[in-house]
Amino acid sequence: MGYRVVDTDSVEPIPDRPCELRRIGVEGGLEKFALNRFRAEPGEQVPLKYHYHTEQEEAFYVLSGTLFVETPDETFEVPEGGLFVADPESPHRAHNPEDATETVDILAIGAPAVSGDAEQYDPDER
């Protein structure tokens, strides 16, 4: 058996990201799925690039603020307490618009916990 409590505020942010990213699942010893906490100020995007995952399902749970997620067909507005889900092979770009009036805090959950399956997506090549 194994149990742990992780003080997510004490997890150091990952450098060189477009917004604050704390890999809280790694700190908690999670191996089957990824769990990350993001904080995006107005004008910041969440991922490094417009992308899709080849294997991983990805979900964004909005803790506070409003998250905007651009997809090839529409932009979703996800309010506090809302959940946005992207299936594998589904391009998306999560962000907090330039004209937003508040920070957005989210938990991002991905399963399986695979690294290197994020592929860049260019919406101009549709």
Structure characterization notes:
This is Cupin domain-containing protein. It holds the Pfam family Cupin_2. InterPro entries: Cupin_2, GPI/OXD, RmlC-like_jellyroll, RmlC_Cupin_sf. Residues 38-100 form the Cupin type-2 domain. Helices cover 3% and strands 37% of the residues. By secondary structure, it is mainly beta. It has a domain at 37-81 and 107-117. The mean pLDDT is 93.
Q: Summary?
A:
Helix content is 3%, strand content 37%. With 126 residues, it is mainly β.
Mind telling me the C-alpha Rg? 14 Å
What class would the helix/strand composition place it in?
Answer: mainly beta
- End-to-end separation in angstroms reads 48 Å
Global shape: globular
The string of secondary-structure elements, in order, is EHEEEEEEEEE
Keywords: Metal-binding
InterPro entries: Cupin_2, GPI/OXD, RmlC-like_jellyroll, RmlC_Cupin_sf
Protein name: Cupin domain-containing protein
Pfam families: Cupin_2 (PF07883)
Element layout with pairings:
Layout (H helix, E strand, L loop, with lengths): L19 E3 L1 H4 L6 E7 L10 E3 L3 E8 L2 E4 L4 E4 L4 E4 L6 E3 L8 E8 L6 E3 L6
Antiparallel strand pairs: 1-2, 2-9, 3-10, 4-7, 4-9, 5-6, 5-8
Give descriptors for this structure.
globular; mainly beta; 5-stranded antiparallel sheet; 126 residues; 3% helix; 1 helix; 3-stranded antiparallel sheet
